[in-house]
């Protein structure tokens, strides 16, 4: 819909003049209606003139400003020209000696000219146009539905997305450059086949997740007329300019795995991953996203993510997802406690837990994974029983273990992992601790030792020893035969090592020290590769984010890559591909 | 009978005269706007041409400056 830039205000000069006059009072006051109409029309005409003069003033102002900027440039140019002429006259071809070394050492020329960017942005919009724009209807508040979207996308982007074309172009450009970098050492003909294949996916429009919007809001808050929606309209600039370019460039990197299709299928979630990646560089985004998305959705995502693992990009998300899973598991296990724990805190804990889990019990892992839901559900009832039994049998011991456990858990990030593994077990053995989140860890270890095979417990043996005074009797009642032999050995050790409560406490930190390197090693062995990848991806994302939003930087990088590319064949191919793309489009 | 008729005729004639007058005014307003629009357009096109020429000139001068002046050496 075209918007007139300037409107001279009263469009209908002669309308409503009589009714206005009549409304003033009795018809008697208007002696001559025709005259009234004439007067009203004249008045409106004068208003029109005033509006016209205002618009004219604005127009001339714009022209004057532009002309002034031109004169400034001309003046500076004149000055440079004079200086240049003086310099050229002073040049002496005979007296000047240029050493070869100097020539080689000379710095490369770098132009200082700054090219205009984002020419059609909100900032450069002329005032009258802005005025007209502000009078337009706002888009429907689709962003309010964002919390209910399960794919995490911004509902607004389905309605209008001024950044769409720029993002499209940006993705293509970045992908092209990356591909060129990759292909440089390989065969030049590779991109062509890929380009033709993925073109169809490209057409589909895909909105970006809310995180992007949130980030924009956070970073550039207050710039916009509308408090929340406006971020979308902030940059109406690039789309049209670069649309052609983008279409041309499409040829090479048409295979866009990440912009597949409408939000109905699982693919959406997969595609969602990369978006997350883009948005994740800023830590806040993650938080926002998490908060926004309902818990069930996280589960779904995590499940889906497991599959796409193969792609490098996914790795980063996956780790997060994993945390989510563990987090959710914790929720289930702890029940009310889980709710108390802040979402932020839990994921980190889960992350730590994960690495430490492997060492103590590979077998236990399987058990926990398979049976977590059932066990947890079953555990709740048992918890009550165990509580009562423990209390009855051992009223005094419970308080000291809590103290011991607390310091323990805090210094030891690894211990929490057992919690996730053992959640079902702890509930059975140690109901009293529930108020304290760390408590479950100890009970878990105990429970593992009691119920399951002793070998697993070797690593947590320290824990068991400490907690023994508390739970041992109860354990003996329940499953004495299993641990009996080992427990006897342990009890002897415990007797030697720990005589009193304070003594127990001190071993805790020492054990912690032992634990940390161990768990770290295992962690590194287990997850080392993954972690590194994540870092790489993060770095990449960081680089991208830096370069992403700047047209000039993207183009510059691309040009640099192209120039440095000695393979002329790939370049020509690229061009042809682009043309073919355009013609097809 | 004749009095009111003449009065009405007079009023109508006066009204027609007034309308003609207003028509002249509005017509001139239109002319002004047309002129302003064309003026704006021509000015902008000229300024744009000028801007373009200036840009090319700036580039050339930049090139010449880079040619003439001794660039800094890396050492």
UniProtKB/TrEMBL annotation, chain A:
Subcellular localization(s) per the UniProt record: Cytoplasm, Cytoskeleton
**Organism encoding this protein:** Acyrthosiphon pisum
> Coiled-coil segments, which residues?
none
Q: Where is the WH2 domain?
A: 517-534
**GO BP terms, alphabetized:** actin cytoskeleton organization; positive regulation of Arp2/3 complex-mediated actin nucleation
Query: What name appears for this protein in its UniProt entry?
Result: Wiskott-Aldrich syndrome protein family member
One Gene Ontology molecular-function label: Arp2/3 complex binding
Subunit record text? Binds actin and the Arp2/3 complex.
Q: What InterPro entries is this protein classified in?
A: SCAR/WAVE_fam, WH2_dom
Q: Where is the composition biased (Acidic residues)?
A: 574-585
**Ranges of Pro residues compositional bias?**
410-441
Taking the first listed entry, what is the main subcellular location of this protein, grouped into a coarse class? cytoplasm
The record describes the protein's role as: Downstream effector molecule involved in the transmission of signals from tyrosine kinase receptors and small GTPases to the actin cytoskeleton. Promotes formation of actin filaments. Part of the WAVE complex that regulates lamellipodia formation. The WAVE complex regulates actin filament reorganization via its interaction with the Arp2/3 complex.
Q: Name one GO cellular component term.
A: SCAR complex
Polar residues bias (residue ranges)? 383-392
Q: What are the alphabetically sorted keywords of the record?
A: Actin-binding, Cytoplasm, Cytoskeleton
| Low complexity compositional bias, start-end | 364-382
Family statement: Belongs to the SCAR/WAVE family.
User: What are the boundaries of the region Disordered?
Assistant: 180-222, 337-463, 563-585
TrEMBL record, chain B:
Task: List GO BP terms, alphabetically.
Answer: actin filament organization; cell motility; regulation of actin polymerization or depolymerization
Note whether Cytoplasm occurs among the keywords. yes
Q: List, alphabetically, the Gene3D superfamilies matched.
A: 1.20.5.110
Signal sequence region: none
Q: Which GO terms describe its molecular function?
A: protein-containing complex binding
Cellular compartment(s): Cytoplasm, Cytoskeleton
A cellular component term from Gene Ontology for this protein is: cytoskeleton
Question: Keywords assigned by UniProt?
Answer: Coiled coil, Cytoplasm, Cytoskeleton
Q: Sorted alphabetically, which InterPro entries does this protein's record hold?
A: BRICK1
**Stated family:** Belongs to the BRK1 family.
- The molecule here is called Protein BRICK1
Q: Does the keyword Aminoacyl-tRNA synthetase apply?
A: no
């Amino acid at each position: 819909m075209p918007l007139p830039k300037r409107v001279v205000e009263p469009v209908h000069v002669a309308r409503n003049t009589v009714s206005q006059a009549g409304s003033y009072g009795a018809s008697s006051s208007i002696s001559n209606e025709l005259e009234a109409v004439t007067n009203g029309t004249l008045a409106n005409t004068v208003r029109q003139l005033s509006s016209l003069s205002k618009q004219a003033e604005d127009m001339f102002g714009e022209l004057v400003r532009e002309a002034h900027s031109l004169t400034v440039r001309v003046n500076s140019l004149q000055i440079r020209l004079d200086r240049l002429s003086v310099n050229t006259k002073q040049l002496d071809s005979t007296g000047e000696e240029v050493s070869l070394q100097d020539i080689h050492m000379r710095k490369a020329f770098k132009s200082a000219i700054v090219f205009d960017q984002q020419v059609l942005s909100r900032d450069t919009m002329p005032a009258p146009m802005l005025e007209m724009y502000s009078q337009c209807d706002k888009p429907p508040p689709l962003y309010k539905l964002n919390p209910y979207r399960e794919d995490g996308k911004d509902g607004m982007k389905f309605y209008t997305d001024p950044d769409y074309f720029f993002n499209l172009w940006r993705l293509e450009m970045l992908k092209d450059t990356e591909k060129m970098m990759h292909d440089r050492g390989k065969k030049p003909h590779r991109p062509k086949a890929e380009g033709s294949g993925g073109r169809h996916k490209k057409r589909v429009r895909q909105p970006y997740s809310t995180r992007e919007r949130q980030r924009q809001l956070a970073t550039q808050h207050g710039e916009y007329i509308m408090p929340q929606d406006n971020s979308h309209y902030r940059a109406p600039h690039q789309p049209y300019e670069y649309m052609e370019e983008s279409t041309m460039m499409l040829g090479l990197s048409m295979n866009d795995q990440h912009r597949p299709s409408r939000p109905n299928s699982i693919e959406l979630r997969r595609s969602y991953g990369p978006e997350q990646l883009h948005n994740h560089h800023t830590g806040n985004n993650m938080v926002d996203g998490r908060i926004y998305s309902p818990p069930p959705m996280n589960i779904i995502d995590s499940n889906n993510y497991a599959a796409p693992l193969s792609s490098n990009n996914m790795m980063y998300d996956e780790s997060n997802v994993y945390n989510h899973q563990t987090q959710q598991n914790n929720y289930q296990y702890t029940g009310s406690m889980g709710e108390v724990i802040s979402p932020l805190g839990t994921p980190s804990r889960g992350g730590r837990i994960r690495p430490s889990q492997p060492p103590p019990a590979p077998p236990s892992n399987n058990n926990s994974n398979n049976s977590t839901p059932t066990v947890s559900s079953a555990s709740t009832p048992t918890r009550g029983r165990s509580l009562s039994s423990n209390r009855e049998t051992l009223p005094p011991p419970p308080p000291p273990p809590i103290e011991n456990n607390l310091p323990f858990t805090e210094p030891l990030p690894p211990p929490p992992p057992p919690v996730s593994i053992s959640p079902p077990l702890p509930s059975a053995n140690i109901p009293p601790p529930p108020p304290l989140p760390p408590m479950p860890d100890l009970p878990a270890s105990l429970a593992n030792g009691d119920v399951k095979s002793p070998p697993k417990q070797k690593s947590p043996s320290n824990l068991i020893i400490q907690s023994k005074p508390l739970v041992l009797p109860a354990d003996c009642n329940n499953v004495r035969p299993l641990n009996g032999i080992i427990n006897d050995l342990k009890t002897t050790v415990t007797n030697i090592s720990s005589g009193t409560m304070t003594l127990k406490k001190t071993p805790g930190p020492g054990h912690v020290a032992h634990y940390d390197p161990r768990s770290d090693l295992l962690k590194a062995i287990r997850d080392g590769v993954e972690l590194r990848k994540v870092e790489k991806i993060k770095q990449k994302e960081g680089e991208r984010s830096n370069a992403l939003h700047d047209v000039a930087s993207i183009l510059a990088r691309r040009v640099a890559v192209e120039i440095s590319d000695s393979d002329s064949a790939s370049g020509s191919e690229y061009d042809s591909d682009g043309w073919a793309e355009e013609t097809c489009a | 009978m004749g009095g009111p008729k003449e009065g009405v005729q007079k009023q109508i004639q006066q009204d027609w005269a007034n309308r003609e007058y207003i028509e002249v005014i509005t017509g001139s307003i239109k002319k002004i706007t047309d002129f302003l629009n064309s003026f704006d357009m021509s000015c902008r096109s000229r300024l744009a041409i000028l801007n373009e020429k200036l840009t090319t000139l700036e580039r050339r001068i930049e090139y010449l400056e880079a040619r003439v002046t001794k660039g800094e050496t890396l050492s």
